[in-house]
Each structure stands twice: as structure tokens, then as C-alpha cells.
């Protein structure tokens, strides 16, 4: 009986592995579907001027809107969502130019433009005042949104957020300024492994099919994303002078091993944002919500229980 069970498990594993290599698009959708179902998330679509914005939505309670970083998408928050949906209605959109959202080569994608698209998205869903979080570029957008529309933000959660001038002080961004090369800009599928090494201290395992599909999407977006990176990284001014206008209680989280953005910027942000607290996570890179989802979610829930 035991041998029969073991053979059945081995055969199933072999079949899944074969399908993962033979049918990457089909299997990637299945992997994402399983992750979303585990977190209680369902797919929706919203329309903002010029774009469609797919989003994931699940849970009950006050709305918590999570904004992904450069090259990411709504599924950047799928793993952490299962630790948040018992407390919040979690909403994670694809920003225009990323994920499954619309793309327009003629549009602008600087931070001001994406802030206004986020505002239109929240209005389309009728969410009112929200808890707002963001990672990297998404943190830049979330912080600028909180500074621009303070009455619309109950709390702010910044995860390795861009926006502070010192955040750009890293060897990778220094190399980009000199050469235009950056791991987040993927020219060829083989380069996707370098992106994964750059963004995470210890990336959880990704199925082959999902890695391949994400790599192909990154390559297809190379030219558009090269322009977007310049718009947000060079043409969008730092937020340092505006942090003091943020009224929402703010939790700043940073991975100590972040290679993309400088963790020292977290202290600058903590000093500038009036009602803020800083948490630096050891053995964590640029994506704490993926690398350490349970601990990252718990930190936010605990913060709201006793905000500054």
C-alpha cells in the first residue's frame, strides 16, 4: 500500500514537472491561480483614462491597497495577502505599463502620472479612505499620494520605498547612471536570473514555467520599461521636501540586504515623516513581502494596533 502511494506521488510529480516545462503559459496561470486561491484573492478589472487596470481583491475589513514596484505586478503581494485578508480587504492593482495592465508607448509614466491613475483607480472602486502600501516604485507612488491627498490615506506602509534622494545611492544605480545597465531592465531571457539575484536576499523557489513567463514579459517590455525607469528614477524629483506633509501614521520597512535601494534612506524618511516608525529586517532584500511575508504582515498589523 505504501509503495503504491509513493509511486502515485512520484508519477504525479513527474507529470507536473513535465507540464511545467512543456506548457509554461498554461502552467504559470495554474501556479498563480493556486497562490491566489490560497490567499482568497479574486481577479477584477477597472478602467482609468487610457488604461485597464486588473487587480486582485479579497478579504474583509478596511481597504488596504498595495502598489507593486518596478517590473512587479499585482501578484507581488499574493503571498503576503493570506496574512492580511483576515484583517483587511486587500486590493492589489497592476499599474499601467506593468503586469496585465494596458500599455501605451505614447503615455507618460512618471510618478505624478501614476499617482493620478491610482487616484482614478480608487475612485472607480469607490474605496474612500484607505490604508495604502507600496514597494519600491510603488512606495514612491504611495508616499506621494499620501502627501498629495492626506484625507484619503488612513495609514501608510512603505516597503523598501523609492522616493528619498539617498535611496538612489547604491552601486547598481551608480552603474545605471554611467552605462544605462540595470538588472531590473531585462534584455534577454537569460538575464532574468540576474534580476532575481538583485532583488532578493533569498528568493523563494519559483516554478520553471513562472520564471520563463515572467522573463519573456520582461524582455517584451524592455524598451518601454527603459523609458519608464528613466522617468521615475531621473525625471521624478525626490520626495524629501514633501515627507513632512504626510499626516498618516507610517510604517517604513527596509530589508538590510537591499541591493537596489539604499537602506540608509529609511532613517531619512523616519526623521522626515512626522508619525512614522522604521523597521529594518535582517536577512531580507528588496522584497520583504515576498521573502518574509508572515513577519512583514505581522509588523504592519502590530503597528496599527499602536501607531505613533
Roughly what is the average pLDDT, rounded to an integer?
A: 92
Stretches with pLDDT under 50, minimum 5 residues: 2-16
CATH architecture: 3-Layer(aba) Sandwich
The run of helices and strands is HHEEEHEHEHEHHHHEHEHH
- For the record, the count of structural domains works out to 1
CATH top level assignment: Alpha Beta
What's the count of strands? 8
**Percent of residues in beta strands?**
15-25%
What name does CATH use for the topology?
Answer: Rossmann fold
Termini separation (Å)? Answer: 59 Å
Please report the number of helical segments: 12
* Main sheet strand line-up: 1-2-4-3-5-6-7-8
What shape does the CA trace take? globular
Q: CATH homologous superfamily name?
A: Alpha/Beta hydrolase fold, catalytic domain
Overall helicity: 40-55%
Instruction: Characterize the largest beta sheet: strand count, sense, and whether it forms a barrel.
Output: 8 strands, mixed
Radius of gyration: 19 Å
**Structural class based on helices, strands and sheet pairing:** alpha/beta
Describe the structure.
The protein has twelve helices and eight strands. With 308 residues, the protein is an alpha/beta fold. It has a single domain (2-305), classed as 3-Layer(aba) Sandwich (Rossmann fold). An eight-stranded mixed β-sheet has the order 1-2-4-3-5-6-7-8, with helices on both faces. The radius of gyration is 19 Å and the shape is globular.
Amino acid at each position: 500500500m505504501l509503495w503504491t502511494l509513493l509511486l502515485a506521488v512520484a508519477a504525479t510529480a513527474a507529470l507536473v514537472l513535465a507540464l511545467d516545462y512543456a506548457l509554461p503559459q498554461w502552467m504559470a496561470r495554474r501556479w498563480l491561480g493556486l497562490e491566489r486561491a490560497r490567499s482568497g484573492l479574486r481577479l477584477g478589472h477597472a478602467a482609468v483614462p487610457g488604461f485597464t487596470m486588473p487587480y486582485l481583491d479579497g478579504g474583509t475589513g478596511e481597504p488596504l491597497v498595495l502598489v507593486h514596484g518596478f517590473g512587479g505586478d499585482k501578484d507581488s503581494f499574493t503571498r503576503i495577502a493570506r496574512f492580511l485578508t483576515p484583517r483587511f480587504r486587500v486590493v492589489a492593482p497592476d499599474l499601467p505599463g506593468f503586469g496585465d495592465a494596458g500599455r501605451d508607448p505614447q503615455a507618460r509614466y512618471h510618478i505624478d502620472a501614476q499617482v493620478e491613475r491610482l487616484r482614478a483607480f480608487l475612485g472607480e472602486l469607490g474605496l474612500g479612505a484607505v490604508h495604502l502600501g507600496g514597494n519600491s516604485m510603488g512606495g514612491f507612488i504611495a508616499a506621494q499620494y499620501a502627501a498629495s491627498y492626506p484625507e484619503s490615506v488612513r495609514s501608510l506602509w512603505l516597503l523598501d520605498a523609492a522616493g528619498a534622494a539617498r535611496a538612489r545611492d547604491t552601486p547598481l544605480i551608480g552603474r545605471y547612471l554611467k552605462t544605462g545597465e540595470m538588472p531590473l531592465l531585462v534584455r534577454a531571457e537569460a538575464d532574468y536570473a540576474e534580476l532575481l539575484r538583485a532583488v532578493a536576499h533569498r528568493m523563494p523557489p519559483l516554478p520553471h514555467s513562472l520564471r520563463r513567463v515572467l522573463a519573456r514579459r520582461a524582455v517584451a517590455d524592455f524598451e518601454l520599461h527603459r523609458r519608464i525607469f528613466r522617468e521615475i528614477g531621473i525625471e521624478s524629483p525626490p520626495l524629501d521636501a514633501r515627507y513632512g506633509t504626510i499626516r498618516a501614521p507610517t510604517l517604513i520597512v527596509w530589508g538590510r540586504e537591499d541591493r537596489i535601494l539604499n537602506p540608509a534612506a529609511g532613517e531619512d524618511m523616519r526623521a522626515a515623516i512626522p508619525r512614522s516608525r522604521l523597521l529594518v529586517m535582517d536577512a531580507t532584500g528588496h522584497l520583504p513581502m515576498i521573502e518574509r511575508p508572515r513577519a512583514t504582515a505581522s509588523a504592519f498589523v502590530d503597528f496599527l494596533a499602536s501607531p505613533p
